[in-house]
Specification:
Distance between the termini of chain B: 13 Å
CATH architecture of the largest domain in chain A: 3-Layer(aba) Sandwich
Number of helices of chain B: 19
CATH class of the largest domain in chain A: Alpha Beta
Number of helices of chain A: 17
Shape of chain B: globular
Helix content of chain A: 25-40%
Largest sheet of chain B: 4 strands, parallel
Largest interface: A-B, 45 and 34 residues
Order of helices and strands of chain B: HHEHEHEHEHHEEHHHHEHEEHHHHEHHH
Largest sheet of chain A: 7 strands, mixed
CATH topology of the largest domain in chain A: Rossmann fold
Strand content of chain B: 5-15%
Strand order of the largest sheet of chain B: 3-2-4-5
Low-confidence stretches of chain B: 1-5, 456-465
Low-confidence stretches of chain A: 505-512
Helix content of chain B: 55-70%
Strand order of the largest sheet of chain A: 16-19-20-13-21-22-23
Mean pLDDT of chain B: 86
CATH architecture of the largest domain in chain B: Orthogonal Bundle
Structural class of chain B: alpha/beta
Mean pLDDT of chain A: 84
Shape of chain A: globular
CATH topology of the largest domain in chain B: ABC transporter involved in vitamin B12 uptake, BtuC
Oligomer: heterodimer
Structural class of chain A: alpha/beta
Distance between the termini of chain A: 49 Å
Number of domains of chain A: 2
Radius of gyration of chain A: 24 Å
């Protein structure tokens, strides 16, 4: 259906793609994996008409194709679900779904039909969303689902999904995988890009690995003896090795031995709106406390309340025995609490400024010299110190942070809090959208912070991550803490999922 | 920047040059404009200054053996007197004798020549300037005439014209500083023109009514001026409060203040006039006059030949530049404008920063109002109308992004100068003011287009991976 021949594309300073040839047939799902910067996004931009290749040919449904614009590609039946959301926040879910051309009857909106169709699409994805909700009122995960429904509504011939599940809960991700398979069964084709290999395993017939703009590895799962679903199991180690070009000994760095001390952060009866209901827990010195749960369970909200970004209705938080006021992030930072927000680009960084400025932003009082002047020498020294330690790759210190890869951006955020010397670190999805190599380094830093006696709260939608990294895991469902996993290393992920999904509602927190 | 593999050295240099030009586009535009203005005003120059006077004296002394008696001819103007003084000083030193001097018209030259002839004396040379050398009696006197040689030089590029251009736009540039801060936070302030008027009127009215008018002490006048600035700053604080505490869009909040401040300025001026004339006054006054030399000094005086408004402008620009690049406050402003949520989560006191920004913008408008009032020796309630648009134009042309987070103080200075130079160039070229509006409209659109295009250019230069 889609055939790429020797596609190449370069930008000043980089060859993003070097002669990539790739084909996707009707009824086939191609998994595309690779580290950040491997060229996946560029490839997608070319296929979807957002960018022209420097060389090579594209064929679509047997004809040579040179899409002039995304609209052109869309016309031909290519739908793309982007990493970044493209919804109009002020419009309702239904209005967003049918925003594109071609849904109306001579310019008149077919409201009744739209409502029916919207419900059908959302049901397919197992999303319980009222089509008349405003998109701005939806949590990130639900918005991502709407985005997917919007693409499915087109009944595309070729569906391209670029990290579609970054904000989805595991259940929603599985529903999405089913829909992609269903689409393929009906004769369409799909290209599925993800960092999450288990998703690739769930949907892809074939897997292609990109590295440094070249196709380095391919696996066809239909060839050898088939498994239950007709596909051979995927060797993840093989894939990871191909992606990084080196083999990782383990997915998570080893625990650094160190004594876990007494309680540092005590949360008692915290409530805020519908998302945080009577939440209580402690984090001890040197402990990594995992917070698991589905998207929308209130994990992010708990972190934001502790950080002072959202005012609580009830409850209190004590740090080393002293009650916190929870009035503003500024105050939280002063008391030694810091937050790595889930939406790094939207909430963590000022993209128009340099990496160094972003690093310095909460630390300016430390580089102050008489009356609010910034001591730039001291600032630069501090930054280059952390830059070296964390291995932040920059062309120069003044490089705009927007031009960095996800991993390097996250390292800038980590560097700023390391400089701050915070005693409580709230990590909200610290490895979202970050490639395998950088991910490992971030894990190492989380470990190291804990070994230095800091208390870490680790929020993650990836079960493996939260179980593999934490000393203890709390599972949230519907704003409440529903269970505690005392020994995550040997815990059964299925059990965590069961609690997170709210199955078997026990009033008492169950202890595994 | 990573070097592109296999790029030739020439290609690399061309790319670097383009990069540099792209980043300093407004400077390039300003230089180009100055070149165009210079070329368009390339005229014969006949300066009447002490320097040209000294040159004439030297000419005379070279051509005529001492003792040599010289008639000096000039018009009756300030510049001519300086010119003549220099000639006479030069002749004196060289040992020549001054037979007589004329300040006036061709007729006076004839009378003077007749007087000298009547007295039995002779004239060996006439020293004058270009204009004098063309007078009938001078040409027909039968004696050698000496005048400074003329040369060709752009009128635009004379010190007098340049100082004039900058001086006339100093108030716009000063307000543009405050506006830059507001625009950096992704806001806008429409009230600056009205705050300018309000500050001027308050300074003038208080000077008249509280501090004794023309007889006011310098300290009293200073207090009146500070009151004017403080009132404008307070106005800014009001906008800031609306924007932060009540989340009113800046456009609307400052639109309200714009009308409010203009109305207040008129009310104060009318009230003052009524008290002055005793209730019967009709209409609105042009200005609340303050006749005190100290009051007028700020707007009309000069230090070392540089007009005070220019000096004030330069000092404020340096201060604002340092504020934005070297202080925590500056970093906070950029952060709030670039991403308000990230700034808040990084511990930036967002509300305080916004309040300070609007307050500063008001204060800068107030300062410009004081300069205006001083220049016209009175607070004019109708001063500064439509200034907000000119100021925003200067900031945008200077490269600041209306979306916030991007822009530099130096850029604003250049933006203000670009507008001033275009205006001056069009004036010299004789373009009517209503025709000029078309040019400025097009300029603003071009600047905004560039603003839209620039991020894309940047992306092209350094693709995020």
């Amino acid at each position: 259906m889609l055939e790429l021949r020797r596609i190449s594309k370069s930008y000043p300073g980089v060859d993003a793609l070097r002669g990539v040839s790739l084909a996707v047939g009707a009824g086939e799902v191609l998994g595309l994996v690779g580290e950040n910067g491997a060229g996946k996004s560029t490839l997608i931009r070319i296929v979807s008409g957002a960018e022209r290749p420097d060389g090579g040919r594209i064929g679509f449904e047997g004809e040579p194709a040179a899409f002039a614009s995304p609209a052109d590609a869309r016309e031909r039946g290519i739908a793309v679900i982007h990493q970044e959301l493209s919804l109009v926040p002020q419009l309702s879910v239904r209005e967003n779904l049918f925003l594109g051309a071609g849904w109306s009857r001579r310019g008149i909106v077919r409201r009744r039909w739209e409502e029916r169709e919207a419900r059908r699409l959302l049901r397919l994805l197992e999303m319980d969303i009222d089509p008349d909700t405003r998109c701005s009122e939806l949590p990130l995960g639900a918005r991502q689902a709407v985005e997917i429904a919007k693409a499915l509504a087109l009944e595309p011939r070729l569906l391209i999904l670029d990290e579609p599940t970054a904000a989805l809960s595991p259940r929603e991700a599985r529903a999405l995988a089913r829909q992609v398979r269903e689409l393929a069964r009906r004769g369409a084709a799909a290209i599925y890009i993800s960092h999450r290999l288990e998703e690739i395993e769930a949907v892809a017939d074939r897997v292609a690995v990109l590295r440094d703009g070249e196709l380095v590895h391919g696996i066809d799962r239909r060839e050898p003896a088939a498994g239950d679903d007709g596909l051979a199991p995927l060797d993840r180690d093989e894939l990871i090795e191909a992606m990084v070009g080196r083999s990782l000994s383990a997915e998570f760095p080893p625990r650094i031995p160190g004594a876990v001390g007494g309680a540092r952060l005590e949360v008692r009866g915290l409530s805020a709106g519908r998302r945080v209901r009577d939440v209580s827990f402690d984090i001890r010195r040197g402990e990594i406390l995992g917070l698991a749960g589905l998207v929308g369970a209130g994990r992010t909200d708990v972190a934001r309340v502790i950080f002072g970004a959202v005012a609580p209705d009830r409850g209190e938080v004590r740090l080393d025995g002293a009650r916190l006021e929870l009035r503003s992030p500024r105050q939280a930072i002063r008391s030694g609490i810091c937050l790595l927000p889930e939406d790094r680009r939207g909430q963590g960084l000022v993209l128009s400024r340099s990496a160094r400025d972003n690093f310095a932003l909460p630390n300016l009082d430390r580089f102050r010299r008489l009356r609010g002047l910034v001591d730039r020498r001291r600032e630069g020294r501090a930054f280059s110190g952390w830059r070296e330690q964390l291995g932040i790759r920059l062309a120069r210190a003044g490089q705009r942070v927007a031009t960095l890869s996800g991993g390097n951006q996250q390292k800038v955020v980590i560097a700023r809090w390391l400089e701050r010397g915070a005693s409580v670190v709230l990590c909200d999805e610290p490895t979202r959208g970050i490639d395998v190599g950088a991910r490992y380094e971030i894990y190492e830093w989380i470990r190291r912070m804990a070994s230095e006696g800091k208390s870490v709260l680790l929020i993650s939608s990836e079960l493996e991550e939260v179980l593999g990294m934490s000393d203890r895991v709390l599972v949230m469902h519907d704003g409440r803490v529903r269970g505690e996993i005392a020994d995550p290393a040997s815990a059964d992920p299925a059990e965590v999922l069961r609690i997170a999904a709210g199955i078997g509602h026990s009033e008492e927190p169950s202890v595994a | 920047m990573p070097e592109r593999v296999g790029e030739s050295a020439a290609g690399r240099w061309r790319r670097r040059l383009l990069d540099l030009l792209g980043r300093n586009l407004s400077v390039v535009v300003l230089v180009l404009l100055c070149l165009i203005s210079s070329a368009a005003t390339w005229r014969e120059q006949n300066p009447i200054t002490s320097r040209s006077g000294a040159a004439v004296a030297r000419q005379v002394l070279e051509a005529c053996q001492a003792p040599c008696s010289v008639l000096v001819v000039a018009r009756d103007t300030e510049a001519d007197r300086v010119f003549v003084q220099a000639i006479e000083h030069g002749l004196d030193v060289g040992g020549a004798r001054i037979a007589g001097r004329v300040f006036g018209q061709p007729r006076d030259v004839r009378l003077e020549l007749e007087r000298i002839a009547g007295a039995g004396a002779s004239v060996d040379a006439i020293a004058t300037h270009r204009i004098g050398s063309e007078w009938g009696p001078v040409r027909t006197a039968g004696t050698p005439v000496f005048a400074p040689g003329s040369y060709r030089w752009p009128t635009f590029l004379t010190a007098r014209n340049l100082l004039n251009v900058v001086n006339q736009n100093a108030d716009i540039a000063i307000i543009a500083l405050g506006m830059t801060l507001v625009i950096l936070t992704a806001g806008i302030d429409l009230s600056v023109g009205s705050l300018l008027a309000l500050a001027g009127v308050i300074a003038a009215v208080t000077a008249q009514e509280w501090f004794g008018g023309g007889a006011a002490s310098p300290a009293g006048l200073l207090a009146a001026m500070l009151l004017g600035v403080a009132a404008a700053a307070l106005g800014g604080l009001l906008s800031g409060t609306m924007v932060t505490a009540f989340r009113v869009p800046p456009f609307v909040a400052t639109l309200g203040l714009m009308m409010l401040a203009r109305g207040l300025a008129l009310i104060l001026a009318v009230g003052h006039q009524r008290r002055l004339v005793g209730g019967g006054a009709e209409g609105t006054p042009e200005a609340v006059r303050v006749e005190a030399a100290v009051f007028a000094w700020l707007g009309n005086g000069a230090v070392l030949g540089v007009p005070n408004p220019i000096l004030l402008m330069l000092v404020l620009f340096v201060a604002a530049h340092l504020l934005m690049t070297r202080t925590m406050f500056g970093r906070y402003v950029y952060a709030v404008g670039g991403n308000v949520e990230a700034a808040r989560l990084s511990g930036v006191p967002v509300t305080a920063v916004l309040l300070a920004v609007y307050c500063l913008c008001g204060a800068f408008a107030g300062l410009a109002g004081i300069v205006d009032a001083s220049r016209f020796e009175g607070g004019r309630p109708n001063a500064g109308e439509l200034y907000e648009l000119q100021v925003i134009a200067a900031v945008v042309v200077g490269g600041a992004s209306l979306a916030g987070g991007r822009g530099r103080i130096a850029g604003t200075l250049i933006g203000a100068m670009i507008i001033a130079v275009i205006q001056n160039g069009l004036n010299i070229a004789g373009v009517a003011s209503y025709e000029q509006k078309v040019v400025f409209g097009a300029l603003i659109l071009a600047a905004v287009l560039l603003d839209r295009l620039q991020p894309r250019l940047g992306e092209f230069r350094r693709k995020p991976l």
